[in-house]
User: What shape does this take?
Amino acid sequence: MTQLNRKLAVFSLALLVILLSGYYFYPQESGEGRSSVTLIIRFGDSGKLRAGNITVWEDGHLLSSEESGDNTTFEFRKLKGENQTVFSALLSASECGNFSVEYSQHSFPKGVFVESIAGVENGEKNWQYYLNKEYGSRASDDMQVKDNDIIEWVYE
Assistant: This one.
């Protein structure tokens, strides 16, 4: 093997290693950790918001707001994020919809406790979340979500 062939072989091998390391060590656009979820907030009969509106955002943009004759509901479709939890999705929705989320961090039991959403505070009723129609079994900041999950925050 000539000197030129050896250099070419070493260069080719180094290039192959670099390309493969990029494939294995950097997340892909649709890879694990990224998710797009739907988040629904049901205000019930809280009396704090004008009753009967359904407001829908999609991909971070206001899509529609209309009277429903029912209780107020916010719906956020295609909320995207890296390593989202139920809680981080709620914070993303609050930024998109320009409303506040008040919460406290606890060390025992460990986790975030949501105290109010859009000015609707815990009291006789409290904020609870459901993930894919199942009651939240642990703190919202500890519950990871996957692509196409449906999160519901309900004032009940």
Summary: The chain has one domain: 35-155.
